Amino acid sequence: MVNSNGHLVAESEISFHPNNRGLAYGDAVFETLRVSAGKIFFWEDHYFRLMASMRILRMEIPMNFTMEYLEDEVLKTTSSVGTAQETYRAKILVWREADGKYKPESNDISFVITAETLPHPFYTLPNVPYEVELFKDHYVNSGLLSTLKTNNKVLNVLGSIYAKENDYANCLLLNEKKQVVEALNGNIFLVKGYTIKTPPLEDGCLNGILRKQIIKILGQLPDYILDETSVSPFELQKADELFITNVITGIQPVSKYRKKEYASEVAKELLAKLNVKARLG
Question: What is the pTM (predicted TM-score) of this model?
Answer without folding.
Answer: 0.94
